[in-house]
Amino acid sequence: MNTFIDRLQEEKKELDTKTTALMIFINTNDKFSELSQFQQEMLKKQSEYMRGYASCINLRIDDLKGE
C-alpha cells in the first residue's frame, strides 16, 4: 500500500523526469532557438518554477519524515 510519502516521492520523480527533459530541450535542441523570444523566455521560466516545485516537494517529504 502506498503511503502519502510514497506518492509524494513518485510525484517528485515524475517532475524530475519532466524537468530534465525540458532542460535538455532548452540547452541542446536546435528547435528551441527557432521559437519566438517570448516562448523561449516562458520555457525557461517554466523550468525555474518546476525546480522550485521540486524543492517544495522535497521539503514536504523531509518534514513528513521528521528530518
**What kind of sheet is the major sheet?**
none
Total number of strands: 0
The quaternary organization reads as single chain
Strand/helix succession: HHH
Instruction: Output the radius of gyration.
Output: 15 Å
Number of discrete helical segments: 3
Coarse structural class: mainly alpha
Query: What is the terminal separation in angstroms?
Result: 23 Å
Instruction: Please state the average pLDDT score.
Output: 96
Task: Reconstruct the topology from this structure.
Blueprint: H1 4-28, H2 30-34, H3 37-65
Helix pairs in contact: 1-3
Can you characterise this structure?
By secondary structure, this protein is an all-alpha fold. Helix content is 88%, strand content 0%. Helix 1 (4-28) packs antiparallel against helix 3 (37-65). It is elongated. It has three helices and no strands. The protein has one domain (4-65). It has helices at 4-28, 30-34, 37-65.
